Amino acid sequence: MKIIMLGAPGAGKGTQAKQIAKKFSIPHISTGDIFRANIKENTELGKKAKEYMDQGMLVPDSLTLELIMDRFKNADCANGYVLDGFPRTIPQAEALTKALADNGEKIDFAINVEVPDESIVNRMSGRRACLSCGATYHIKYNAPAKENVCDTCSAELVLRDDDKPETVLKRLSVYHEQTQPLIDYYKNENVLREVDGTQDMNKVFDDILAILQ
Ligand code: AP5
Fold first, then answer.
1. pLDDT digits (tens, 9 = 90+) for 50-91
2. What residues are annotated to the active site?
3. Other C-beta atoms within 10 Å of 79: how many?
4. Among 143, 116, 108, which Cα is nearest to 128's?
5. Atom of ligand 1 nearest to the CA of 5
6. Which of 87, 93, 133, 200 is the most core-located residue (most Cβ within 10 A)?
């Protein structure tokens, strides 16, 4: 099964994608996580990506497409994947559609997690991320057992650099301008499904399962 998670920054794409990946035994592929891992390791890709991410802007399509097409070659993608944060622009979506069509494949579902802008800034200020294993928490809605310590790998949790309120507002405006058009793109492909992302995260997951099963 090939699934795309759509939605504004902080809508809960990553939270849901991790659960979908576990349930269907497919990899969770987050371009944001891949960029953050590269930043942490100070690679050339990481240095370039950081310039854009810290300003709330998108990393150029050429860099993003190269890394994702490479990721699809991994053996773990044989039975599908859940994409989180990719595609994010119409050219990225078109490149994905073409790459899949060249192999006689297509996306099965594009799930749009809907959350209004007003709720996003509040959510982001409470998010805490583990840059070591990629786990995500929220100080109020999904708190770790021990404050600021990852339940999974015991690393310290941090507020992401791009989760500061001013950067979140920039990311939201970039989302509306460059990523929201993908909703119509996937509606036209007849694979768009919508879920209400303002509900409790377990209820959001139940709604997604009802779509996928
Ligand atoms: P990326 O890491 O993809 O960030 P994003 O899309 O902005 O999404 P987030 O990870 O911020 O949010 P999310 O929707 O996954 O929400 P989460 O589940 O964490 O990208 C970062 C940057 O990388 C981009 O700005 C760009 O520069 C670059 N980039 C990445 N991909 C790119 C691409 N394809 N092209 C170009 N550039 C790219 O949830 C958020 C918080 O809310 C958490 O604390 C969570 O616990 C909580 N929460 C989740 N669900 C609920 C709920 N139902 N109720 C209450 N709280 C909830």
1. 999 999 999 999 999 999 999 999 999 999 999 999 999 999
2. 13, 88, 127, 160, 171
3. 11
4. 143
5. 14
6. 87
Can you tell me the distance from the alpha carbon of 68 to that of 47, in angstroms, rounded to the nearest whole number? 17
Q: Say whether 41 sits in a helix, a strand or coil.
A: coil
Closest CA to 117 of 51, 153, 171, 53: 171
Q: pLDDT tens digit string along 96-152?
A: 999 999 999 999 999 999 999 989 988 898 999 998 998 999 999 999 999 999 999
Structure-token match 């970039």, residue found: 174
Verdict on whether the full-model pTM lies above 0.85 = yes
Among protein residues, the one whose CA lies closest to atom 5 of ligand 1: 9
Per-residue buried b or exposed e for 155-189, using 16+ beta carbons within 10 Å of the residue's own CB: eebeebebbeeebbebbbebbeebbeebbebbeee
Strand order from edge to edge, sheet including 192-196: 28-30, 81-84, 2-6, 109-114, 192-196
Q: Is 95 in the pocket of ligand 1 (CB under 6 A)?
A: no
**Residue 192 DSSP SS3:** strand
CA atoms of 105 and 200, how far apart (whole Å): 34
Residue 192's identity, in one-letter code, is L
**43 phi and psi angles, rounded to 5 deg:** -75, 170
Query: Is 172 close to ligand 1, i.e. is its CB under 6 Å away?
Result: no
